[in-house]
């Protein structure tokens, strides 16, 4: 964190401290009159669990780069929103923390978008664990019914290695590519959520039941697939080409997959 960044960081701390409303003292208790709005440095430092001397140096731009633990304590003390916390981390010279787990609820506006595109293109939404959360009518028509059985019945990686009818939908070459991407994406998910019991159980299940998954897992591949072109067999229109684009909602760790049709394959 350079000198200019330290100044900006300290200014941000001062603004946030000034915006906090002190608690009302008990009735009848005399308190000294505050000369400036917000909390005193000592009060903020006490809430954050750090020394007032160190906090003062942070505000004055005289301290070295704060640790992630200090930044997290300050974010809690200031009661910051996710966007405000992320800004604090960046000013402090650290990348913002990711979510501890994907959100289980899709934004209402995103659900309206899916419905609005029913007659235009297939759209699916899955989370950072690769669980399918929603799809519009066009996607349901293209991809067919989901098994939905067992704890992993809506997981894309699980379906890639256990689902039936993939060859009919994607063809032999497309199925081979899909399973390779699924294994790599599962490894990426586990690297982001290494202690997630659901992901670890899913991986163990696939290692125990799928030779194809074991072979791909041994390769150790990770994947950052965001754009692709796919040929897929529509149940009534035959083979079609799609441009696939992946959009990410980082706050909830949701992935929106848009299937833009570009004619027959």
From TrEMBL:
<dbReference type="InterPro" id="IPR041413">
    <property type="entry name" value="MLTR_LBD"/>
</dbReference>
<protein>
    <submittedName>
        <fullName>Transcriptional regulator</fullName>
    </submittedName>
</protein>
<dbReference type="Pfam" id="PF13560">
    <property type="entry name" value="HTH_31"/>
</dbReference>
<feature type="domain" description="HTH cro/C1-type">
    <location>
        <begin position="38"/>
        <end position="85"/>
    </location>
</feature>
<dbReference type="InterPro" id="IPR010982">
    <property type="entry name" value="Lambda_DNA-bd_dom_sf"/>
</dbReference>
<dbReference type="InterPro" id="IPR001387">
    <property type="entry name" value="Cro/C1-type_HTH"/>
</dbReference>
<dbReference type="GO" id="GO:0003677">
    <property type="term" value="F:DNA binding"/>
</dbReference>
<dbReference type="Pfam" id="PF17765">
    <property type="entry name" value="MLTR_LBD"/>
</dbReference>
């Amino acid at each position: 964190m350079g000198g200019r960044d330290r100044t900006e960081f300290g200014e941000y701390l001062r603004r946030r401290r000034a915006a906090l409303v002190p608690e009302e003292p008990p009735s009848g208790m005399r308190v000294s009159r505050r000369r400036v709005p917000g909390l005193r440095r000592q009060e903020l430092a006490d809430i954050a669990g750090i020394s007032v001397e160190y906090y003062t140096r942070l505000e004055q731009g005289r301290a070295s780069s704060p640790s992630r633990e200090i930044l997290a304590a300050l974010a809690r003390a200031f009661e910051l929103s996710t966007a405000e916390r992320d800004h604090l981390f960046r000013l402090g010279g650290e990348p913002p923390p990711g979510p501890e787990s994907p959100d289980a609820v899709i934004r209402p506006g995103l659900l309206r978008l899916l419905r609005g595109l029913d007659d235009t293109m297939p759209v699916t939404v899955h989370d950072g664990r690769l669980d399918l959360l929603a799809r519009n009518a066009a996607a349901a028509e293209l991809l067919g019914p989901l098994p939905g059985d067992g704890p992993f019945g809506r997981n894309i990686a699980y379906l890639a290695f256990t689902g039936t009818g993939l060859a009919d939908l994607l063809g032999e070459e497309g199925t081979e590519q899909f399973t390779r991407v699924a294994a790599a994406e599962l490894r990426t998910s586990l690297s982001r959520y290494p202690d997630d019991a659901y992901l670890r159980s899913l991986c163990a299940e696939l290692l125990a039941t799928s030779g194809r998954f074991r072979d791909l897992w041994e390769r150790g591949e990770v994947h950052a697939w965001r754009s692709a072109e796919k040929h897929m067999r529509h149940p009534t229109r035959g083979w079609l080409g799609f441009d696939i684009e992946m959009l990410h909602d980082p706050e909830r760790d949701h992935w929106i997959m848009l299937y833009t049709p570009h004619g027959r394959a």
